[in-house]
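Same chain as my last thread, 196 residues:
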Amino acid sequence: MRGRDPIKEAKVRSKAIELIVKHGIEHFTVGKLARECGLSVGTLYIYFKDKDDLITRVAGEKFAEMNSAILKDFDPNSRFEEGLRLQWRNRADYMMANPQVFLLFDLLRSSSYQSCVFAVNGIGFRETMQRFKQIAVNRGEIDPMPFETYWSVAFGPLYNLLRFHNEGKSFGDRPFVLTEEILWSTFDKVIKALKK
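reply #2:
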């Protein structure tokens, strides 16, 4: 039996993300991936049980990587504006440095893989985010609200800006680049909407 080659495995993982983003989950196959990597299909089965295993593991690892980047230097006990500002900085930095991963997550969010990737891998992350919000409520910095409302107001604008940036355009095919000025002026509006 052939052994695992970490260099080949890294190439397979990277190429899998690229192909899923390019062709969509429904058109992604292990055969296409093997051809793109210059490997036999059998070689891929050294690393992954099947297509589902490949997608869930690759996405799960990227989700854990993103969560770690987002939580870098983050303290859920920090003051609300300070903590949310760091969240925006970390999220923007990660997503702009990893646009393919951002697109992968968008595709997975509306697929049958959502529950096995986001639910399983996001437990500690989700608890940290809920704790941060609840501490801000307890301190009287923000009003109580459903977590989904909070998340939509706190991060929806950021993710839309990042989508426009990744596409290089906004509505009407207008060119768009996310600048620091746009990022932080949008953040200021979000803070005004959330803080008491």
